[in-house]
């Protein structure tokens, strides 16, 4: 995730923001201004998450070998003595998101649902706050989100064209928030970003979930989270990933890396599913579809990491699990030296194999999404997956060569994705299936 975009998305320093052209005019609708000394007054995120016992059999197969203890760099919400694996902690979030969505489906009412605080949501900040924003401003806000999306993620923007207008613009709003969040640590202002700045960004997130957006782009997301059963936790977790990126430059084992990948990319899957919707014909459990979405985010991020090894090393960062490097006789100096040896090839083969397992898991989930939402997901999956092929084609030289998917391959992928998107949900897929009582 190395942004090379220009700065229109950059978050302005708090004192500038009042004059921002994107700030919502005062008086017409609620506006919450950032204060540089902002201390969250409603820190529900500081509460420890509810621990849900997950039977081993229900856990994700692909990562069940990762049993190392949680180490530094974990989320603020978790006590240091939390001995669950990253996989278990993330699974807890998956269960809550799935329960929230299942509840919405079972109520099958277009009206906003009341979420019982102790029930499924990580907080009370879900769905209960409809921002008072004039339709015209909201229209402009969404249009701006669409423009940003079209500018920074052309293929993906194209893929959203088949979605219903409500879903399309909601996905744009989520995309823009994710981009801006990523931009904090990867964009032009990154050297000036401090943990305090991330705290303010989180405060702003809490405000928008309470129906008090700070600027136009936030207003679009505030509207989106009021319309769809979207929980705040994945958004908080993405900010947590950015905190991690500020302080952490090494990963001891896959358990640590898994948590990072969840924070910065798995969260995107969890944010997107409630908007993309589930095919009414699907017999899969909501939870298993969320798991597939999580897997796609993890797969994408692992691929990103494998593609960018050289670039990251030049920034003094190694996102590869140290213990796995050692198993192949490699040390961090080998990564900095950037020499493609047989050991390196063997190590990379193993990493690519694991990334493909996550893609496989994600694939099984895509057909269960609402039919109009599948195309962009297949497109992003096929395109990103091909980066792994490109690394192989480069003979595993990800130090000096950038693996990329050529224009023609990209063009061919779009109709291929379209074809796959037409397939109905597999009746006998290996995803978790609803029991008779739940259908
Ligand atoms: C339909 C669809 C693909 C929806 C997702 C739209 C969305 C909200 C995207 C936000 C992406 C974003 C800006 C994330 C911020 C953190 C980040 C930059 C993560 C990396 C993305 C690629 O980064 P980058 O643009 O820098 O890469 P390049 O260098 O340009 O190659 C990530 C690698 C992660 C992106 C993660 C996803 C797109 C997750 C997708 C999962 C789903 C949409 C769930 C699908 C559901 C099922 C059931 C499979």
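Q: What amino acid sequence fits the structure above?
A:
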């Amino acid at each position: 995730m190395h942004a090379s975009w220009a700065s229109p998305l950059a978050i302005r320093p708090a004192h500038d923001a009042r004059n921002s052209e994107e700030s919502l005019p005062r008086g017409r609708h609620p506006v919450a201004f950032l204060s540089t000394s902002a201390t969250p007054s409603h820190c529900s995120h500081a509460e420890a998450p509810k621990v849900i016992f997950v039977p081993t059999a229900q856990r994700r197969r692909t990562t069940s070998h990762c049993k190392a203890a949680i180490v530094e760099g974990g989320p603020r919400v978790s006590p240091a003595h939390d001995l669950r694996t990253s996989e278990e902690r993330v699974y807890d979030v998956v269960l809550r998101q799935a329960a929230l969505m299942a509840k919405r489906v079972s109520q099958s009412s277009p009206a906003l649902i009341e979420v019982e605080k102790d029930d499924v949501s990580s907080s009370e900040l879900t769905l209960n706050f409809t921002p008072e924003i004039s339709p015209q401003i909201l229209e402009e806000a969404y249009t701006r989100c669409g423009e940003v999306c079209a500018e920074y993620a052309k293929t993906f923007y194209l893929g959203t064209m088949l979605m219903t207008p409500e879903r399309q613009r909601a996905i744009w709003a989520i995309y823009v928030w994710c981009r801006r969040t990523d931009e904090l640590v990867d964009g032009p202002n990154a050297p000036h970003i401090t943990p305090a700045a991330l705290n303010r960004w989180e405060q702003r997130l809490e405000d928008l979930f309470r129906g008090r957006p700070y600027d136009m782009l936030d207003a679009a997301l505030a509207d989106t989270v009021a319309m769809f059963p979207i929980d705040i936790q994945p958004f908080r977790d993405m900010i947590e990933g950015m905190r991690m990126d500020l302080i952490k430059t090494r990963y001891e084992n896959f358990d640590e890396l898994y948590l990072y990948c969840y924070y910065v990319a798995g969260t995107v899957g969890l944010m997107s599913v409630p908007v993309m919707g589930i095919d009414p014909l699907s017999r899969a459990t909501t939870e298993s579809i969320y798991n597939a979405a999580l897997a796609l985010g993890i797969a994408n991020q692992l691929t990103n990491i494998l593609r960018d090894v050289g670039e990251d090393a030049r920034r003094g960062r190694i996102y590869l699990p140290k213990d796995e490097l050692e198993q192949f006789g490699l040390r961090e100096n080998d990564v900095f030296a950037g020499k493609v040896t047989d050991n390196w090839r063997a190590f990379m083969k193993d990493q690519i194999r694991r990334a493909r397992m996550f893609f496989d898991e994600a694939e099984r989930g895509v057909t269960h999404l609402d039919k109009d939402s599948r195309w962009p997901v297949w497109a992003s999956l096929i395109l990103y997956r091909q980066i792994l092929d490109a690394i192989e084609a480069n003979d595993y030289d990800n130090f000096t060569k950038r693996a990329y998917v050529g224009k023609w391959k990209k063009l061919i992928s779009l109709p291929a994705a379209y074809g796959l998107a037409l397939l109905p949900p597999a009746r006998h897929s290996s995803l978790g299936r609803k029991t008779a009582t739940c259908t």
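Q: And what stands out in the fold?
A: Residues 1-3, 156, 171, 174-175, 178-179, 182, 264-265, 268-269, 272-273, 289, 292-293, 296-297, 300-301, 304, 362, 365-366, 369, 376-377, 380 surround LST6JFWI (CB under 6 Å).
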